[in-house]
């Protein structure tokens, strides 16, 4: 049963007249959208707390622990502080794009909530172009970042704005192509049907672990790496490289406007995790999710928070990539590999072979891509580790040390 | 189906109202002490020299162009993916050729040095 049908039925039971059906539907959608949008704000508070706790533990600190149980209310206090800060508008800023940018960055992420399948029948709007809708909304964030960078009339902000656009555009191609792999398998763009297709039936019982990640590990890895870049997370957080760009494109913003960018960034990385869960990790599917409907949303949130914690783990442990290496990794590694993957999948799916052989061939291609991507990334980070160690050796400091290549590419 | 988009419309309205309300609230709740020096462009404590909106690297423009080509082609792939089960032999050949052209285009750009970032 869909949530909107249930809510409409409830209103009729309470005595709403049948001839006002448009009003009943409007009220239903308004209530649903209102709850969804406000849940996003509460979610952001929790996400910021999780980030701070995880990063603190990695760095052998305790993290926020004063306000409320486990420091849970720290984020609310921070929001209050930001609310009481002065709203500084630089005189030289381009007013229109400077003012619109923080609003626009939040609009994109909240609208993405509409097609996230939280459970069976628990999806805002099950659009027939669900995946495409998410791709389209991704561009709004890029636009907001560029508007902020350009409108601030600040050199750091503009540099960061250019970097954002170059990075997000480059990584959008492998991300969208990786999202194409499950769509090609199920032949639908509805998020709910994509989640539904990842069930595994043994007799009449749905085990709910036929996740696409087991069939398409290569596509999942490429999606995950691109999502790290799209969510502006380490190792791709060059746009806010503190040592060179001070803070990034939101350097001229203060108070609530700064908070909006902050909110958008945290929600964005959560949603990219949610899309990964819906497309590759079975969505709300799981053992006994079919029998007990309440388990669906719990599974979905548990998986998404797991992905989110993994993203923060990467944030706490990985070094930052250089701009040129990052761009080349997108165009010379991810895009060719994911295009090959799509091509193989298209050809294999039409081969006149039994279904399980087709699946096996797709799996083999995916595992090949998985290993290739991991190898290339691993060799890069190993090289970086050696370079860093060498520059700290005392002997190398006296004479033999080579000047570090500082060309960052801007 | 159309009513599903009604939900998206209402959600987009709320999505605009929430940040606008937050920013407006912050504007009125915070102190307001504008100062010519405070409102200057930030640049590590020194006065900014010259114009910000100057010429930038042509590389960004190239990346934008390549992205445009690829994104449009990727969007074309989605309808093909949806109808893939029902496609006839020749349509499959056409779709595969389309992806092959994409790959060849990428390698052409690679050879031409459009992907270099130096």
Number of strands of chain B: 0
Across the major sheet of chain A, the strand order is 1-2
Number of domains of chain A: 1
Oligomer: heterodimer
What share of the residues of chain A lie within helices? 55-70%
Q: Give the helix/strand class of chain B.
A: mainly alpha
| Helix segment tally of chain A | 15
Total DSSP E strands of chain A: 2
CATH T-level fold name of chain B? Methane Monooxygenase Hydroxylase, Chain G, domain 1
Largest sheet of chain A: 2 strands, antiparallel
> What percent of the residues of chain B sit in helical stretches (DSSP H or I)?
55-70%
CATH architectural group of chain B: Up-down Bundle
Q: What's the helix-strand series of chain B?
A: HHH
The CATH homologous superfamily of chain B corresponds to NADH:ubiquinone/plastoquinone oxidoreductase, chain 3
What proportion of the residues of chain B form beta strands (DSSP E)? under 5%
Q: Report the span from N to C terminus of chain B.
A: 49 Å
